[in-house]
Amino acid sequence: MKLANVDTNKIWMSNKEAQAYLGVSKDWFEKRRESGLLHYSLVGKTIFYIKKEIDDIVCAGAVTGKSLFQKARQNK
C-alpha cells in the first residue's frame, strides 16, 4: 500500500495533491471536470479542487461504511 504525503486538512488541493490523495491518475480528475462532477479553479497553470467535493465523490461511491465516513467527517 502506498501512502500519500498530503495535508488532508487543506480546504483546496492542487491537481497533483488530489491525485496523490486518492491514488488515481490525472485522467480520472479530467473526466470528472469535463462532466461537471467536480468543480475546480485554475490559477495560472495549476488546477485546484475543493477537498470536500473530492470526499463527497468518494463517499457517494462507497459500498460499505458510508455512514461511518460521514460521521468521521462531521466530527472534524
Summarize the structure.
The chain is of the alpha+beta class and 76 residues long. It contains 4 helices and 3 strands, in the order βααββαα.
General description of the model:
This protein is α+β, with helices and mostly antiparallel strands. It has one domain. The protein is built from four helices and three strands. The longest helix is centred in the middle third of the chain and has 10 residues.
Keyword list:
alpha+beta, 3-stranded antiparallel beta sheet, 4 helices, globular
Mean pLDDT: 83
In quaternary terms, these chains amount to single chain
**Overall strand count:** 3
- Order of strands, main sheet, comes to 1-3-2
Figure out the total of helices.
Answer: 4
Instruction: Flag low-confidence runs.
Output: none
Number of domains: 1
* Relative strand content: 15-25%
Topology:
Blueprint: E1 12-14, H1 15-22, H2 26-35, E2 40-43, E3 46-50, H3 51-60, H4 66-74
Antiparallel strand pairs: 1-3, 2-3
